[in-house]
Amino acid sequence: MDNIINMNNLLFYVHFSRENQLNPHIIYQLEKLKTVFSEVFFISNSPLTSDDKRLLEDKKLFTYFLQRYHVDNDFSAWADGMREIGFENLKKYDSVTLMNDSSFGPIFNFHSLFKEMNSKEGDFWGLTNMRAQELELSENQEKVLLPDYIQTYFISFKKKLILSTAFEKFWSNVQPLTEPKEVLMNYEARLTTYFKELGFKASLVFDTRKESLKEMTAEDFSRFNLSANLEHGVPFLKVEAFAIGALNSTLPTTIEYIKQVTSYPTHLIVDYMTWFDYPDRPYMLNDKMIQVGGVKKYENDVKIGIHLHVFYKDLLKHFVNLFDQYVGSYDLYITTDTDESKSIIENALIGKVNVKSVLVVGKVGRDVLPWMKIHKQLSKYDIAGHFHTKKSQENLWIVGESWRTDIEKQLIEPAKQIFEEFQTHPQVGLIIPDVSAYYQSNFGPLLTDEEKLWNHMADLWTSTDFVSDKGLRKQDSYVMSFGTMVWYRPDALDNLLSLEIGEKIPQEPLPNNSILHAFERLLVYVAWGNNYDFRIAHSVSYNGFWGNSSPSLALRQLLRDGEDLTNLIVKDETLKVNLWKALRLRDIIALFLAKMKYIIQTKRHKD
Questions:
Q1: What is the CATH number of domain 299-538?
Q2: In Å, how far are 12, 186, 401 from 178, measured between CA atoms?
Q3: Can you tell me the distance from the alpha carbon of 33 to that of 455, in angstroms, rounded to the nearest whole number?
Q4: How far apart are CA 587 and CA 584, in angstroms?
Q5: Tens of pLDDT along 62-110?
Q6: In this structure, which topology does domain 9-209 adopt according to CATH?
Q7: Residues 124 and 202 sit within 8 Å (Cβ to Cβ)
């Protein structure tokens, strides 16, 4: 491929950030655009830091630069750039392209597409268009009909049009309007009609007027149909489309498709949308996965503090041995329930100089309240870990055993790899384990149960002071550490761990909708509220068929072949539980009888 298209192409690129940041996906975009455009006029509608401007300069990502401090619209920014270069000087270019930073990409080979579109008949072209529509001008429902038009997040003009007096006339009359409807009506929608009425021809990469609106909630394909854009080879995908379609069941598939058939680094989408939108969208989770396994030779030079809550004392040495083997240098803070337990722990750990304290905290609050009580001691470390002697008394032995083992394989054995992740990615403040094997093959928390936790979650959230103003969203399910064991930067969770919640914790046995269960679900979101992202440590070889079978496995525990699910809809909670137990017992008995029948038949065959 040629280093640059053999044409004299100018790009006017408008940048805007409410946080006054130059995000990595913008740098990537400009680097790719360099192979197409001989000159780039970078216009920023928000203040750039000296470091960000220096980065652009060092990478030679612009030829001209304009800093604007008044935010009005892209059209006035483009017009200001044209006036600065001069309309006579624009005539020396073979093409003039206008673009803003509202999209990710290029997803596909933009170099080839640009050459193809410039070789086609026509005087200007764009990526997508909007159909004719009615625009409501005011509250009295006055409307105006807008014709179909090329969307101006990307639009390119060829030589013939640039040389025309119409080009200069249109752009020299652009005013700094701030009302979006005025900008749409006077500039974006008018531009296409203005030049077409003068005899200039337009072309499109994806003419959406020919497409079906099936399953679309609005007619804007650039924002409401990512799939169609990919199908038609549109190289730039609107940022808003990922927010609007965040919960669309096809979006995770879309991200995986981009990974498989293009070279675009999808983590640029995920990293930006974490802050633009929300941190746990389903399409993000694979990009937030760390594949862990094996022992790293990496020697950390960070201070590590570990909290271990010991309730089941038979697991004490097991955890300490794991820390010694895999963590390296660390300080250990232990909490436990009684003075008797403290004495047993201290005797078991005689001579271990890295044990900084053994604190008796009582029997209330499981591992969470002890963690909160020890948090101040852990706040002086670069990275802290929270662990407890996990068992699952409510389930069969294998459930708790496999659950704890999964956490050990995902968080403790690869500890040095996890520490390296923290050092390599300063924005990461929390690392949680992947969902355990038990919950991969069985249904996890149900939305009916999660609903009961919302008031506790909202109460904790509103009681917590955050650096930035972010809102917690009520959801059917939450990304969390099943078992509450994590590695974290103390700053990421400081405001949550500093709360006083002791009086709100009920006595054992805990109900499933306690404040401790709400606390468990908040860790990822509190870290995000404190401007930290999270990662998921994954090591166990699960496959998709586990997840696919889970709903059916759960359903089969409630009904057998020929039974109607509606017969099992009951209001009384006690009756539900008893019915659940009875049906599970029936399944176990049926399985036992089938097995005995097989044994008898086999024995008869041998005889």
A1: 3.90.550.10
A2: 20, 12, 61
A3: 49
A4: 5
A5: 999 999 987 789 999 999 999 999 999 999 999 999 999 999 999 999 9
A6: Spore Coat Polysaccharide Biosynthesis Protein SpsA; Chain A (3.90.550)
A7: yes
